[in-house]
Amino acid sequence: MPRARVGDINIYYEASGRGEPLLLIMGLGGGSSLWWAQVESLSPDYRVIAYDSRGVGRSDCPDVPYTMEMMTADAAGLLETLGIDRAHVYGVSMGGMIAQELALRHPEMVKSLVLGATTCGGPQAVLPPAESLEELFSIMSLPPAEIARVSASVSFSAGFVSSHPASVRQWLRKGAESPPSAVGYRRQAEAVARFQTYDRLPQITAPTLVLAGTGDQLIPAENSRILASRIPGAELVLFEGAGHGYLWEAEEEANLAVRGFLRRHPGRGGRSHG
């Protein structure tokens, strides 16, 4: 189980494939294991690196206030520790927030940027229904069976949950391989609540692809439209009817969109060892 010492914590990561490096950053409470379909799709052509953010899975979980800047430093530090000067970066939900900050704070490290089902935060963000937020932020206080039910209900469209029960069960199994601790989940959620990039988005210079499901009840797709309108030259792809978990609901289409985008924006220069 590879773990890298980054700053004051140990970060668990998995690397697959060869080629230009691609860093995958999962959302609130999610770990590296949830990227299984993307790793399978993209590792034939890229060196795909997925990791557990602080507070999740096999990475350390210090009980201190987390900030998005702190978690961005974790991502940058992991790349540096692995000897990677520049990488494609794909972040989903909270991972998309970290990816935005990485592109803003360390533009030299980001070859291209994929932002999935995420937001700029702050007063300009379009909020979900109040009940979705309440369920999300109270989830770790629920019994295990209820955690699974709520996780599925906020992550997927109702139609997908009823028509693809085997896929939802697989997603739950994969999530259980790198679960958050109650402390880690709360600390990550606190960082998410303080996040905002709206005024700084025009400073992003990396080629950017923005993805979302039109049925997202957790981070409404209007947030992705805002991101695409504020980031210079950004492309926007929406998956009709898919929920927050478009990665799995629209797996084939989403992976195809990412592959096409990465091929259109090959990296130039940089160093990647290991």
CATH fold category name: Rossmann fold
Which secondary-structure class do the elements indicate? Answer: alpha/beta
Nearest-angstrom radius of gyration?
A: 17 Å
Question: Order of strands in the sheet with the most strands?
Answer: 1-2-4-3-5-6-7-8
Domain module count: 1
Got a strand count? 8
**CATH homology superfamily name:** Alpha/Beta hydrolase fold, catalytic domain
Mean pLDDT: 93
Helix residue percentage: 40-55%
Give structural notes.
The chain is of the alpha/beta class and 274 residues long. It has one domain (3-264): Alpha/Beta hydrolase fold, catalytic domain (Rossmann fold, 3-Layer(aba) Sandwich), CATH 3.40.50.1820. It has 11 helices and 8 strands. Strands 1-2-4-3-5-6-7-8 form an 8-stranded mixed beta sheet, sandwiched between helices. Helix 2 (68-81) packs across helix 3. The protein is globular, with a radius of gyration of 17 Å.
Structural features:
disordered C terminus, alpha/beta, Rossmann fold, 8 strands, 274 residues, 8-stranded mixed beta sheet
Brief summary of the model shown:
The protein has helices spanning 36-42, 68-81, 94-105, 130-138, 144-155, 158-163, 165-177, 182-194, 222-230, 246-249, 251-264; strands at residues 3-6, 9-16, 20-25, 46-51, 87-92, 110-116, 208-213, 235-239. With 274 residues, it is an alpha/beta fold.
Annotate the secondary structure layout.
Elements (H helix, E strand, L loop, with lengths): L2 E4 L2 E8 L3 E6 L10 H7 L3 E6 L16 H14 L5 E6 L1 H12 L4 E7 L13 H9 L5 H12 L2 H6 L1 H13 L4 H13 L13 E6 L8 H9 L4 E5 L6 H4 L1 H14 L10
Parallel strand pairs: 3-4, 3-5, 5-6, 6-7, 7-8
Antiparallel strand pairs: 1-2, 2-4
Helix pairs in contact: 2-3
